[in-house]
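Technical annex B. To support the medicinal chemistry partners, we prepared a structural model of the target in complex with adenosine-5'-diphosphate, based solely on the information shown next.
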Amino acid sequence: MTDTQDTATALFRELTGRTPDGLWSAPGRVNLIGEHTDYNDGFVLPFAIPHRTVAAVGIREDGIGRVRVASTFAAEPVEVALDDLATLFPTATGSEPAVPEWAAYPLGVAWALAEAAGRAGAGVDIAIASDVPVGAGLSSSAAIEGATASALNDLWNAGLDKTALARIGRKAENEAVGAPTGIMDQMASMLGEPDAAIFLDCRSLEAQLVPLGVAEAGLAILVMDTRVKHAHSTGGYGERRASCERGAAIMGVPSLRDVSVGDLPRAEELMDDVTFRRVRHVVTENQRVLDTVRTLREQGARAIGDLLVASHASMRDDFEISVPELDTAVEAALAAGALGARMTGGGFGGAAIALIEADAVETVSDAVNAAFAASGFSAPHLFTVTPSAGAQRDA
Ligand code: ADP
Ligand code: MG
C-alpha cells in the first residue's frame, strides 16, 4: 500500500470502526500545453501525474441513506441525507454553500452521479487522503472528484464510462462548488495513461493518447510549484471567460474554437485591445496544441521546447494570468538550460513546468531556488513528474 492508501484506510477506520469495501484513486494532472482553451471548445494536452487522491469507501451497514465524508484536509467529517443532495445542489449563485467548500466536491459528485444514473445507491462512508498539492494548479479538485466518482460508480453499480464520470466531476465543480472550470482536468484525471498525454478536443470530448517519450529522449519534466495560491472560482478566471465569450460574440461564432490564426487581423479591427489580446491568446494557444501534438509525433519531446516558451509568453502578455513568481521560475529554468518552460493551470499562482535534461534536475532546481531567494520569494516546491495512470480501483 502507498502512504496515501494507508492514510485513507486509517481515516475510514477512525470514521466507521470498519474496513472499507475498497480503495479508489485518481491523479492530479499537469497540462503540457493548451491553457484556457477548454472552455472555448478548443484543444488541450494534459497528462496525469503520479500524485493521487485516494477514497476509501464502504456501504453503510445500518442501511440508512446517508453519505458521510471525511478528509485529512478537514477537521470534521460532513454528513448529509442522500435525499437532501438535490436540495443542497446546485448551489444558488451568491448564496452561502450548504456544506463546507471541500465537502461540496465529493458530495457534489454524489449528487451529480445520482442524477446521471437516475438514482442514488445505498448510504456510504467516504474517507479521503491525498498527496496532490492543493491549490497548486495540479488539479487536486479533479483528483478528489475522480476518486469519489469512480468509487460511487462501482458501489452504486451505475455503469458509467470514464467520460461520463469526468462530466460528473465537472458538474460538481461548476454547480455544487461554484467554480466555473472547463472539462480538461477531469478528463485528464480519468483517462491518463503511463507515458502518454491526452490530446483532448473539448468540443467533441474526443480524446487521443499521444506518447510523450520524455524519459526515452533523456529528458524530465520538472514541476515548479510557486506556492502562491490561486483562487479559481473568483475574479480573474471569470473575467477571462467573459472576455472570451465577448470576443466570440463579436466574431459571430459560437466559441473561439471557430476563430483561426488567419482571422486575427479582422479580430483586431473589431475589438478593443484587451478583448483582442485575450482572443489572440486562445486562438494561438489552440494552434500551439495542434503544433505540439504534430511535433511530438514527428520529432519527439526534444522538439517542443519553443512551443512551451511561446505559450508562456502568450499567457503572460496577452492573457495576463501570470504572476512574478511564475515568470521567475520559467526564466530561471530556461537560463539554466531548460528546453522549454511555461506556467501550467489556470494562472494567478500555482505551478510552472520545465522540460529539462534528465541529468539536469539538480542544476535547474538550484538555479530556480536561487532566483526565488534573490527575488525575496518564499522557496518553491520542486519535483519531477512522469505521465501516470488515470482513475482506477486500487483495492
Ligand atoms: P487545484 O485543483 O489546483 O488544486 P482548486 O481550487 O481547483 O485547486 O481545488 C482545491 C480545493 O479542492 C481545495 O481548496 C479543497 O476545497 C478541495 N480539495 C482538494 N483536495 C482535497 C482533499 N484531499 N480533501 C478535501 N478537499 C480537497
Ligand atoms: Mg482545480
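Notes passed to the chemistry partners:
The longest helix spans residues 273-298.
The mean pLDDT is 96.
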